[in-house]
Structures are given as structure tokens and as C-alpha cells.
Design a protein that fits this description.
The complex is a heterotrimer. By secondary structure, chain A is of the alpha/beta class. Chain A has one domain: 3-Layer(aba) Sandwich (Rossmann fold). The longest helix of chain A is centred in the middle third of the chain and has 14 residues, at about 115-130. Chain A has helices at about 40-50, 80-85, 100-110, 115-130, 135, 150-160, 180-190, 205-210, 230-235, 240-245; strands spanning about 1-15, 15-25, 30-35, 60-65, 70, 85-90, 165-170, 195-200, 215-220, 220-230. In chain B, strands 1-2 form a two-stranded antiparallel ribbon. Chain B contains twelve helices and two strands, in the order ααββαααααααααα. In chain B, strand 1 (about 40) and strand 2 form a beta hairpin. The two termini of chain B are about 35 Å apart. Chain B is mainly α. Chain B has helices spanning about 1-30, 35, 50-80, 85-100, 100-120, 130-155, 155-165, 170-180, 185-200, 200-205, 230-235, 245-280; strands spanning about 40, 45. Chain B has one domain (about 45-275): Orthogonal Bundle (MetI-like fold). By secondary structure, chain C is mostly helical. Chain C has one domain (about 40-275): MetI-like (MetI-like fold, Orthogonal Bundle). Chain C has ten helices and no strands. In chain C, helix 7 (about 170-195) runs antiparallel to helix 10 (about 240-270). In chain C, about 45% of the residues are buried. Classes of the chains: A alpha/beta, B mainly alpha, C mainly alpha. Chains B and C meet through helix 1, helix 3, helix 4, helix 5 and helix 6 of B and helix 1, helix 2, helix 3, helix 4 and helix 5 of C. The complex binds adenosine-5'-triphosphate and magnesium ion.
Chain lengths: ~250, ~280, ~280
Amino acid sequence: MAKVDIRKLNVWFKENHVLKDVTLTIKENAVTAIMGPSGCGKSTLLRAINRMNETIDGCRTTGEIYIDGQNIYDGSIDVYELRRRVGMVFQKPNPLPKSIFENVAFGLKIHKMADGQKLAEFVEKSLKEAALWEEVKDRLNESAFSLSGGQQQRLCIARALAVNPEIILLDEPCSALDPIATQKIETLIRELAEKYTVIIVTHNVQQAARVSDYVAFLYLGKLIEYGPTKRVFENPENELTERYLTGEFG
Amino acid sequence: MLLCALLSIIFLFLMLLFIAREGMQALLTFGMDFVTGHVWDTNLNLYGALPLIYGSLMVVAGALMVAVPLGVATAIFVEEVLPFSLRDLIKSLIELLASIPSVIYGFIGVLFLAPRVASIFGLSSGTVALTASLVLAVMTVPTIVSISGETIAAVPKEYKEAALALGATKWQTVKDVVIPTAKSGILASVMLGFGRAIGETVAVLMVAGNVAMIPTPPWNFLSPVYTLTAVIAMQMGEAAIGTLEYSALFGLGLILFIITLIVNSLADILVKRGVKRLGG
Amino acid sequence: MAGKISEKVFFAILGVPTIICLAVFLWITSILLSGIGTLRLDLLTTSVLKGGFFEMIVGTAYLLLGATGVAGPIGVFAAIYLTEYARHGRLTRIIDQAINNLAGMPSIIIGLFGYTFFCRQLGLGISLAAGWLTLALMMLPIVIRGTEEAIKMVPNTFKEAALALGASKWETTKSITLPSAAPGIITSVLLGIARVAGETAAILFTACVLVTRGLPKSPFEPVMALAFNLFVKIVALGEPPEKVFGIALILFLLVISFAAVGIALRIYYRRKQPWLR
Ligand SMILES: Nc1ncnc2c1ncn2[C@@H]1O[C@H](COP(=O)(O)OP(=O)(O)OP(=O)(O)O)[C@@H](O)[C@H]1O
Ligand SMILES: [Mg+2]
């Protein structure tokens, strides 16, 4: 089943043409990895899916992205509701300067999805889903900054899950973490794919091989290759993809 | 070079020393009455600073009631709503507002604002606490805008993105993330605004009416007041050196010095705490 | 959708205070500029005794030059010490606090101190020299802060390049850091001048008299100044607005030009160094 359908997407930052005619269909309940050398537009592509690019001055977008058949760049789309449906986790863990509880409750509160006892239940459920509950259940009122980097990142995942999204975008979620924390997040990503559509940007070829079902390879703003991970890794069609996967550049 | 750097400490210390020395006579003569006495009268040679302290606080409180909402709202608007290209221009204009000399504020206040206040409220003279508060408010706003603006601008982009990516509106982001994070900086700006307003002399003196009495009722902004600074400026010229009056003026200076020192130090602590919190 | 519209409305409301601030500035400017009719150019060079402004303008310039001469070098050296030489610790923290406190000291307090210390203790009397020192005390924090910022903006690679060539620390500061920071330092001095050019309370009892016969012949004589004259004429002499409009306008233009040039330069140099933002 196609969940996200990207058609002829172009993005400019001022004069800089960053994404060029990207067309890509992303499957539901699977993990899709976006790979490519630094500066090729991976983050920009990801941020097009929840329209975060438009929070940046001087950014212009053309083309369409359909989620469940509905164009999210259509004028009638409520962008705040869109961002609730499409959660995002950033490269550097970015907890808010609030308590652990308040971080997870933040989205629930702004969307008025729950309060009181219900709120606490949702927070617990999300923290469990993000495999963090056991570690923080006795210190929910401590500052989020008291957590380790890996815990902070799982907190950010819990925060994104709390508002009941359908799609999760992860932008190099492990690049600031040590190997053990990375492994925890990777396990978590596999579990999330059972319920959510997961799109992850990664620099790490092995990581893409471990966690993803599909992989898209981006080079200088163009989509070079896209297909099931196994097929692309074993038998890349494009020479650039092959050179990237064998570590010749990146 | 070390000496140059130390000069600020040395002079701050000398300031305290010399002002305290000259004010000693009045403090010894009146004791606590110097601060709590109700009568400030040169003819009676009685110096109780309470009406002056009250006058200063009243005028400043009035000014802050106007300047804080105005200044904080402006800072948020400039930093969070205005497009980047306009930001520097608007901030510069507001900074220019701060650089207008106080004697010019006084000039405008006494010639243009006071008559309007008088006619609106049917007073015989418009030089009252309200006028002084309005003039002071305009003079304080730039301080509040620039300091709270600085802390608002220092709120990490990551925090704002976290909120926006969850579907928060821009206003929710400002209200729930930006303002709480910049809270201590905003508070510091209010402190500094207070310090600037309570030390303002010339402009206040020209529009406050200068009557050394606590108004009746005490919150009556339509009666004239006399402030600490204004008394010093008005009476220094006439007070003969070595008299009790002369010493009393320095006593007022000492009160002002101490208030300013406390307020500025508090602001300093708040600014530092703001930076620490942002550092995570 | 409704959320989006109410948000627009909200931000529009938030814009009102900004507009009020700008309107007040325009109002003040327009009031003052409306007095331009009373100002004749020849009055600028006509003696006060004949109804002109000459001695006030030159007196103000004397005060500013002297104060800059004192506060400029001291402030720059202090900033060099604080940024380049001092080890960060208790002492620099205390100095930092003192600078902030000095910057926030009411000018009337600086004036009171100037009177007891410079005029009486040092025996300078009510004089130009006492005015210089008093105003320098007000300029100092601004120059130190501005210079510190300018020095911190000089990329470390510049300094390392010089140090690697075997230059001593002072040589590096003198030949690399200061020239690179010069625009910033000049800016801070301009802003310092803008701060004290219109200052009244600090010179009220330290430097000024209402009328002098000609210009002061030595730093130990009192001077005339625009701000002081404007103040005394309105408060003590109760002169009608037409008669003081000229002084107010000249003073306004003088201060605003220093401030505007200073602010514009600062924005220009901050933008020119984008890697620092
Ligand atoms: N906020 C921005 N303003 C202007 N240009 C930007 C902005 N963000 C990204 N760009 C430009 O867009 C291009 C693609 O950036 P993007 O962040 O999407 O790359 P990336 O593939 O995620 O790189 P990396 O692997 O380093 O994260 C780059 O050339 C970058 O300079
Ligand atoms: Mg990226």
C-alpha cells in the first residue's frame, strides 16, 4: 500500500535549487531509508513531508506530495493537523527545557487531545512504546536534560508518538549517539514499523541495511535509485549507488 | 591594562565612599527618620525622604505598567513575527528612541504632553505623576525591547522546531516554548528598565510637578510628585557646602545608589541564569 | 484553518505595540523638525551674547572630545585586558559586574560623585576638565562592552597565524587584533558619544554655567553646553518654547546622527562577518 506519494517535488532555498523533480512512492508500515552524500537534500526531502521547510525564510516548493491520496500542499490542508499526523525526530536530540513528563505531554496539550488522568495514561503509553518507560517512570518530573543522549532521543520519539501520528520522520536519529544507544534506537525503529510508516535519513550504510525495507539514494538533489533494500544492496542498478555503497564517496 | 580594567571597580567603590561620606551628617542627624520621615522641607531644615522615595517608586511603577507590556510585546513581534529583512531596521529605530537625550524628552513632555494631560483630565497643570510615568515609559521601552529581544533571539532554533514539528502553531510555540525559555531574560530586562527609570532625572523633573508630598489617595496619578533624582538636581545648586541640606542630598544619592546596585545585580544574576538554562 | 486565521489576527495585535513605539519616535522627530523654521544657519556661528548658539556648540564639542580622549583609550585597554589577557575567574567576574553596575548608574549619581571627587577632592572646581572626567565615567562601560564585542569577533585563525610566525602576544594584539577590530571600536566610541552628548544631569554641577564670556581658555574654566542650556532655560528661566526650539533641534540632530551612524556601522560590520552569527 502506498502511504506517501511524492510527485515531481522541487525545493529552492533562495536561488539554490536543492531538490530536483523527485518522484517517489513510500509504502505503508515499512521502513524507508533515504541515503546520499552530505548536502544532497536528504533533510530537505524529509522536511517537505511535514512542510517544515516553509518555516525557513526564502524556501520555495513546487510539486505534490500525497498522503493517503490527499495533496498536502493543497491550500485547504491544515498544516498543524498535518504535522500531528507526521511526527518528526531530529538529528540532535532536542527535548524542550521542561520535565520529562511535560515533554511527552506537550503535543497532547497543544492539540487538546487529553488532560488529567487521560493525559498521564497517554504519556505512559508513549514512553512504553519508545522503550523508555522503565528507565524514567520514577523521575518523570525531572528535567529532560538530566537524561543521557540516547534516552533524550527516545524521549523525542515518545513525544512524537504521543500525538498518535501515522508517519514518523527520523533525520539521522543516531548520529549523535554511541553504539549501544544506537542499537536500542534501531531495535525500536523495527518495532515501530509494525504500526507506523517510518522514513529515516541515514549516513550509515550498515544502518540502512539493518533497519530498512526500502532504500532511496539521492545525489545532488536528484533521486538516483529506489527499491527494496535487499535488491539495491545486492544488485545496484546505478553505478553511483554502487560506488556510494562500497564507501568510495560519501 | 589591568589598571584600566580595575578602574570600573575602583570608581564604583569611590562613588559609594564619597557619596556616603558627604551624606553621613544627615544620616547621623536623622537616623532612620531620614528614610521614613514624612516631611522634606528646606525652610524647616527637616529632611525625611519618604515622600521622595514614594514619588520615585510611584512614577516608576506607572511607567513599568505601560512599558513592560509594550516592550515585551514589541520584542516578541520583532524577533518572532517580523521578516528577517525588517528586523534590523525596526530594532535600530527603537534604539534611536533610547538615544534621544532626556532633556529633550523633558522638553517634549512639558511643552506637548503636559498640556494634553491637563486638558484631558481638566487639571490646572499637567505636570503630574501620570505625565512623568508616560515620559518614563517611552524612555524605558527600548531597554526592555533590546534585552528581552536578545534573550528571545537566543532561544535555540531546535526548541522551536520541536514544537512546530509536533503541530504547534507559531503562537503556541511563542507562548509555550519561547517565552518560558526566555523568562529570566525578560525579567532581567524589566529590572534594568526599573533601574533606568528610577535614575532618570532631567525628564522627570521637568514634568512631575515637584511637590514633596505623598499624594492623596496614594495612587492618585493626577497629583504632582517629587522624585529622589529631581530633588538632588533642583537643590544641589542652592545648598551651601557643609550644611545639613547639602548632606541630605547626598543621603538621597546614597539611597538611589543602593537601590540601583541591588536592581542591577539582580538583573545580572537573571541574565547569567538565562544563559545557563539555554545551554542545557 | 480557524487556528491559522486567529493566529494571524493575534500577531497583528502583537504588532500594535511596535507601531506605537515607532509612532512615538516619529512624533518626537516631527515636533522637533517643525522647529526648523526658527533655526538660521548663521546663528550657529553667532555668539550667545548676540542670541546665537556658538559657545554652546563648541562647548559641547570640547566636552565630548575630552571625554572621548579619556574614556576611549582606557576603555580599549580595559577591553583588551579582559578579552585577551585576563584568565576567566573571580576577578574578571567582579570586574564584569562592576562594569554593568557602572553602566546602570543614574547619571545624577555620577554627577554627584563628579562634584565631590573631581571638583572638590581633586580641586578642579566647576570646569571643563571635571566635565571630561565625569562624562568619561559614563562613556567607559559603553566603550569597554563595544570593544570587547569587536575583539571577540576577530577570528582566532588571524591571531594564530601571527602567533605561529613568532609574534609576541602584544605584537599580535597591536598588529592583528586591533586593526581588525577597529571598525567595532570606532562604533562603540560613537555610541558612547551619543550617550553623553545630550547628558544633562552629570554636568549640571560639574562643568557648566549658563553664560560664559567667550570660550573657555583652559580646561579649568567652566563651559557652556547645549543640553545644560536647554534645561536651565526651560526649568529655571521658564523661557517660551520658540526661544529654546533651536537648541533642542541642534541637540537632537547631533545626538541622533552619532547614534544613527554608530548603529548603522554596527549592523554593517556584523553582517559582513556572517560566520559569527
Ligand atoms: N535553512 C537553509 N537555508 C538555506 N539553505 C539550506 C538550508 N538548509 C539546507 N540548505 C541547503 O540545501 C542543500 C541540502 O541540504 P540538506 O540539509 O537537505 O542536506 P542533507 O542531505 O541533509 O545533508 P547532511 O547529510 O549534511 O545533513 C544544501 O546545499 C544546503 O546548503
Ligand atoms: Mg541533513
